[in-house]
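seq:
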Amino acid sequence: MSHSAKWTLSSAQILLLMLSATSLVTGACGRMDTVADASSVGEAAVSFPEPGEEAGEDPVRIPDPVAEAAPLQPINQTPIQPANPVPPNPETSSTALAPNPQNAAMKDFERRVIELTNAERQKRGLSILTVNAHLLSNCRQWAGNMASRRSLNHSNMDFGGENIAWNQSSPEEVVTSWMNSPGHRANILRTGFRSIGVSMVSSNGPYWCQQFGW
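struct:
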């Protein structure tokens, strides 16, 4: 056999070599043309290095899709507006010197007389009198009675004490007049009283009536 003939391959040998090469490539890629059992699939699977195992490379961090998810943005909604607060009723409002636990309706001048009366009590360390709806009603009725009769008289209504006056033009003036009269002053500063009512009728007057309760 010559030297050149020693490297000559037959067609059958060439075909066999090609089939062997194809089989090696298929196995390396993990490809299987037929259904295999679990063990053969495991043997054919290719394991890739974990991220960062190659020399000189930093580990690649795989983000946690739950922990690193973007926070949910709030839905743009028009904030619910609180209902419009009911403005205080000036006729029934309490003040520091005219507490009105019964929410009795009062006129401004009635509240002012009560505030001035309580201010005189407060100066002397006495308790503040509270507005009483029953006494307010009594005073309005009796002031109207005096105005219609044009007569300054005390009533016989249900009360603990009573001050009356005629012709004073303002709350300040009538309270000053009462404080300058010993009997009226004694009513304003009496320690046992707890409640108060007052009113005025301007016709033929003004006529004022102030009552105190226990």
